[in-house]
Amino acid sequence: MNLIARSRPDDSLAATREAAAELLSTRTPKFSLPQPLYTDERLYALDLQEIFEKEWLFAGLTCEIPAKGNFMTLQIGDNPILIVRGNDGTVHGFHNVCRHRGSRLCAAEKGKVAKLVCPYHQWTYELDGRLLFAGDMGPDFNASDYGLKPIHVATAGGYIFISLAEQPADNSEFLAQLEHYLAPHGMDNVKVAAESHIIEEANWKLVVENNRECYHCNGSHPELMNSLLEFDDTEDVRATPAYKAQVARMRDKWDGLNAAWQLQFFGKQNRLTRTPLKEGASSMTLDGQPGCKRLMGDLTDAEMGALRILHLPNSWNHFMADHGVTFRILPLGPQQTMVTTKWLVHKDAVEGVDYDPEQLRKVWDATNLQDRRITEDNQRGINSMAYQPGPYSETFEFGVIDFVDWYSERMLSNLSDETPSLQ
Ligand code: 3BY
Ligand code: FES
Ligand code: FE
Fold first, then answer.
1. HEC secondary structure over 321-359
2. CATH classification at residue 131
3. ipTM, 2 decimals?
């Protein structure tokens, strides 16, 4: 065996980057992606490096960490992340990694602490990341050299976004508009009424693609289709005169309530729009009626349609008058993705009186499981030797085209930055 001839790890990294750039720049536009982009573990590692470690990601909600010392954790590829509310109310984000010998610091998904204490040798950090205590480290030890490594955090409208990039892109315009569109929903006064984590055995891009179209909805989502109107724009070729009249009526109402509704894109990465639900439905519940009697914010009219928020690469959301639903995806492997769904209601709504969490979550629990089956079958077919990229419908799958274009553009642009070396 000739060990010398074996390629060095950084050669193979460069080769993977070249292969990805080649696949993305020669792909057929408006067709699904070439197989390796959905299957290959090296290309998956590149997705983590170039998308999930560089772009802004939806992490969670400020209502989940209401008071100082409240924290939440999540995992971005190999990176454990910690988000914690500081003594002064600031939301801090850190790599959840002790500066002593690197142990993961906080294991719980959520919790409350006075200080951040490493379970291994009890190095103790302030909520703002400063190292306060390290036992017997000798006279030359300088604690100020060993603070937790910060990540970028941005909050708006109750949302927490994080970025592991050194210098993330400016997203302030989207954040300001997000806050504006969410204003009627009183995001300072919400709580999580129900939460689910499901794992889909599929590449994260298939999970997003599935969400970006409703070509599959009539065949798969009977519960959701009681309330969801699949198109969100009067310019949509499928928009009927009845739909346009409904939109005009709702827009008068939204204007009266100062509830922003305009369809707005921020590049292809973020989209905001308020749209009606099916005539007669006011919420995404089984019967289309409000799932929570206490409405969000100061709203008094249950019929508000739904605010739809899209944030690539990892979130979509629906906000009605009575509750909001947030979705977060996190990749777990080349063919494995976690989908976290949270149902939000007014924080003063009383469980068992104003809402029943089991009822509230029914439509999206059903829809998530239907989407899991669809997406896992999509992955199984893509793994076949017979798979070849197929054409998207421009009428029904324009959202998928936009996502795949966004992904390809981000990858090609991030790949053209200098090649990172293995540390
Ligand atoms: O969750 C969503 O936003 C989308 C709307 C269309 C298909 N999917 C259910
Ligand atoms: Fe954290 Fe030792 S690794 S205290
Ligand atoms: Fe679906």
1. CCCEEEEEEEEEECCEEEEEEEEEEECCCCECCCECHHH
2. 2.102.10.10
3. 0.84
